[in-house]
Amino acid sequence: MCLKPDGDLVYPMPKTEPVADKPIAPVAAESKRLGSLAKVLISAVWLLVLMEIAPRLFLATNLVSHQRVRRAVLGDDNSSWRLFWIILHRQHEEWTGKYATYHPTRGWAVIPDLKNMTPFGKGKFVNSNSKGLRGITEYEYARTPGKQRILVLGDSFTFGTDVSDDETYADDLEAALPNTEVLNLGVQGYGQDQMLLYLKEEGVKYHPDVVILGYLNMDTYRNLWKFFAFAKPKFDMTPNGLQLTNVPVPTPEQVLAEEP
Predict the structure, then answer these.
(1) Which residues contact 202 (CB under 8 A, 6 or more apart)?
(2) Mind listing the pLDDT tens digit for each residue in 127-145?
(3) Are 233 and 91 within 8 A, CB to CB?
(4) Contact 152, 158 (CB under 8 A)
């Protein structure tokens, strides 16, 4: 305390030391960083879960009844077609129709010995012979004396989806050519890879004079996939040529067992 000239008393301020910022303990900093990281990871996991589950729930309730939904939401790839098949299969439907069955090499094939099945509506009949060829006519592997033989390979347009046996173009071709047998080996959903295997496994046994390939551009894309209407074979390009993969084709039970 001191006396100023004007008589006022002045009280000195106490001296204080500057206070430095206290450092954060290393353990607390590490805990804070781990907490932030955990929040990011949890958010990422939830995002992935929502991205997976939400489309599945949406597709499961809308996919079968609205084909436009499938085209808009799913793509043309193995995973999309696999999911599409799973949903249809669980609702006791098949994209390949009720006239197809599992095949270990080609994925699926026409069921043998179909008798007047009507999958396309009233008045449209589907039959197959004992070897799974469209129609009721039985063909031996040995040639019929005095007759030419034509073999037709293809997809649903060749098989004759939505029409009766006598309305397929194979049947029309046979009617137009005297002394000629036309064997319809068309199968709904086939790519050229499956057609090639069908020719090698069965077609050549009939000793055809001519083989006709029912070509559609969309079939070429099917050659790129291991799954379309169902799991299927696939040829890969290698330095040594084409290499057949995904054979034997997994069964429906194996495909469903892999589905989470």
Answers:
(1) 131, 185
(2) 999 999 999 999 999 999 9
(3) no
(4) yes
CA distances from 110 to 97, 107, 147, 206, 223 (A): 9, 11, 26, 18, 19
Structure tokens at 142: 């040995």
How far is Cα 70 from Cα 207, in angstroms, rounded to an integer?
42
Question: Is 146 a residue whose pLDDT tops 50?
Answer: yes
SS3 151: strand
Q: Which SS3 state, helix, strand or coil, does residue 66 take? A: coil
- Domain ranges for the chain: 26-93, 98-257
Please state which CATH number belongs to domain 98-257.
Answer: 3.40.50
Strands 234-238 and 241-245: antiparallel
Written as one letter, the residue type at 25 is A
Contact yes or no for 134/170 (Cβ under 8 A): yes
- Residue 43 structure tokens: 């958010």
- Phi/psi for 169 (5° steps) reads -70, -25
Among 70, 57, 100, smallest CA distance to 232 is for 100
Return the H-helix or E-strand segment holding 210. strand 210-213
Q: Could you read off the pLDDT of 179-202 as tens digits, one per residue?
A: 999 999 999 999 999 999 999 999
Closest of 165, 185, 183 to residue 174, by C-alpha: 183
Q: Give the tokens for residue 128.
A: 């197959």
Which token pair is 84?
């599409």
List the structure tokens of 171: 């049947």
Tokens read off for 9: 């008393």
Contacts of 114 (CB under 8 A, 6+ apart): 99, 126, 127, 128
d(CA 104, CA 120): 27
